[in-house]
Amino acid sequence: MSWEPQPDGLSQIITLLKQSQSKDNMVQRAVQLKLEELNQYPDFNNYLIYVLTKLTSENEPTRSLSGLILKNNIRIHGAQLQPAILEYIKQECLRALSDPSPLIRATAGILITTIANTGGLTNWPELLPTLCDMLDSQDYIVCEGAFGALQKICEDSANTLDSSALNRPLNVMIPKFLQFFRHSSPSIRSYAIACINQFIVNRTQALMVHIDTFIENLFHISADDDREVRKNVCRGLVMLLEVRMDRLMPHMNNIIEYMLVQTQDSDETSLNACEFWLSLAEQNICKEVLTPHLANLVPVLVRGMKYSDIDIMVLKGDVEEDEMIPDREEDIKPRFHKSRTVTQKAASGAGGSDGAVRSMEGNDEDDDIDDPYVDMNDDSNPSDWNLRKCSAATLDVLANVYKDEFLPILLPILKETLFHDDWLVKESGILALGAIAEGCMTGMVPHLPELIPYLILCLSDKKALVRSITCWTLSRYAHWVVSQPHDQYLKPLMKELLKRILDANKRVQEAACSAFATLEEEACTELVPYLGFILDTLVFAFRKYQHKNLLILYDAIGTLADSVGHHLNKPEYISMLMPPLIEKWNNLKDEDKDLFPLLECLSSVATALHSGFLPYSEPVYRRCISLIQQTLIQDVASTTNPTQFDQPDKDFMIVALDLLSGLAEGLDCYIESLVSSSNIMQLLYQCMQDSMPEVRQSSFALLGDLTKACFQHVHPHIADFLPILGHNLNPEYISVCNNATWAIGEISIKLMEDTKPYIPMVLGPLIEIINNVNTPKTLLENTAITIGRLGLVCPVEVAPSLQQFVRQWCSSLRNIRDNEEKDSAFRGMCQMITVNPVGVVPDFIFFCDAAASWMTPQKDLHEMLQKILHGFKMQVGEENWARFVEQFPPQLSERLAVMYNI
């Protein structure tokens, strides 16, 4: 297709492109509206591709911008483009790959990839053959342009390229790429490695058959003069380490020595090389291959943890006092609320309170592991992964691999760095000390009486970056500090950390707040004697903090409430804490995302204060109802009329549901009057059927908490609610299933024998969940408790299935510590055994073990358990019982003898 633009149209578009580079927001908005208007005209896209590929009289940024606008149009409206126009764009893009300008070639490559992603490579069958032919061009520019496009395609479509639908083009492409590893141009060598690297992780067959040639070629160019080439070599070796260790093993010594050199490079290569150590540290062969090199590696890692001059500039490391400078919105990372998950207490006493707790497991669909190095309070963008963080993370993993064997190498280095005159070296030593805390804790204990006071002194260092990393490192040793006499370490640490919470430097405030939250989690009720002192500081910080740190302060207050619980419920503490929280609450608009951390904080505070929260409960309750209602209305509007209404941010509804849960748990029966005067049950019915798993997860937690607090309002809706709960017993969504299971158990305890009609709809799925080997511990425990409770209220209906779940039931509940939920579940089990004693016989040893897990059962429950044990012994006779007991571990026999006299 040949196409020529109209001069007026072209001139209008050039003007728009120039205006869109304006810094004026009003101008940009007007341009945006005009561009959307022009999208109504099909040949608008022809003008855009014409500007990019043919209008050489214009400057490169304007031409490139034209291509990027076209890219967005294709991404959004690609399916509606006329075939002739799309063909014209494709043809011009391929031609532009030989443009003299690298920027125009790169933009054409982006466009080609977008078209391939939007319409699928199958709809552009000539693309890959054309690009591969262009690689053979004698013209370097053509070859380089084609490789740029191919790299983007390999990156975006790695799986598609290996599909039979495309006739497996990789069988041709990979051998071809390998030929370019020895090309005279470093840029082309780099592209060739980068393309192949995309296929390592998935063990793509087309690469695996050439794996030896690939490795041989990688080694050949490993010492390349070009840094970009070496960077891609390092990336390739890191991925090979994870998928083809067998092929690297014969060369491992040389690879380690090569990586040691590359880790000390002065640019980005060092980060890619450092990732090799992080990956190697997680492999089984780590100790075997790394031990001879450890003494060389550790100093390199510690040096890598030192801030560079550029880091200091970016971090404004010389700015000591910045508390008065307002935060920029772009420096505040988005907050994601973790929906409420119901968990049990372990027998050891670990875990949160009974019932629904804010669990850091959060949403099972996208569990993100709490990585201390991703958010180490180092820079304005905590997700920036750099050499310093990678080195620290590697040191941490190696400390976990080598444990105390690591210390003879590390301690002399720490001694040298921790007390160094250069603050940058000292700062890196403090970071290293924090990094090894988990792995080397046992070996570090003798040194901590000297090191902890030194670190507490460093909290007053004149350099803000030293003060902030010291907060982090001290938080890594908080567990040890709390286990020592308070006067020696906890009190001085707390005093200094609270001072740092009020530091004049915002980075230090943030680090101190985070460290204090960790200390709160470790110390729990040990903090009660100091509550007044702590609250004084945290409340003062409200007046002092800028936007970003205010959000972290909410976390510290919420964690304090979780840690000290009802001890916070004193008039003097309430009068200190609540006014600033309620003032923030009143000042925030309903659509402000700062509500998320504030609502989370209030949820913890409401749970801790119990009736102490009553004076504040009504406005908080009403607003939560309003947030849920607004979100549901928006959701219906956007579903029925998507062009006119945007989809709502359902996090507002989730956080509101969770705060209502906190209120129900804290206020208990006092919430009744609020519930009776609202439409909460109708809203809950809608939320329980929402398409978003997190909404259902939080609504089931709230249903369980309302069942406990004011069942009279839940009761009339049971026939509507229980089928929905039964339908959500789907372990594909672990936390949703978990909360539905827990809510069923809570409802059954209140409904008693009226649960009978619902047993057939819930018992089958619960038995399936308890017997699934992949069911996580929390869900297993809640399922066992709910089955036990169903057996308690309807033993005749549940007991016939006893043999299908008794073994797994006993194994799941032996680790739960004594509580009300365990009590009701065991009573249910005793009832079921009474109805169907034969059902427990094959697994009776598991029942014995579970009965022995009680510390102090209620008197009547103790009698029930004892009766079943003695009844079984009588039934089988002394001789068989003696043989049966021989299978018990000695500890179990002793425990049963002491507890149940058997």
Automatic annotation (TrEMBL):
The answer to whether the entry has keyword Cytoplasm is yes
Q: What is its main location?
A: cytoplasm
Q: Which UniProt keywords are present, listed alphabetically?
A: Cytoplasm, Nucleus, Protein transport, Repeat, Transport
Q: Give the compositionally biased regions (Acidic residues).
A: 362-373
Positions of the UniProt region annotated as Disordered? 336-373
Q: Name one GO molecular function term.
A: small GTPase binding
GO terms for cellular component: cytoplasm; nuclear lumen
Domain Importin N-terminal per the UniProt entry, residue ranges: 31-99
**What are its GO biological-process terms?**
protein import into nucleus
| Entry's localization field | Cytoplasm; Nucleus
Tagged with keyword Nucleus: yes
Q: Which SUPFAM superfamilies match?
A: ARM repeat (SSF48371)
* Similarity comment text for this entry: Belongs to the importin beta family. Importin beta-2 subfamily.
Tell me which PANTHER family the record gives: IMPORTIN BETA
What is the protein name for this chain? Transportin-1
Its lineage opens with: Eukaryota, Metazoa, Ecdysozoa, Arthropoda, Hexapoda
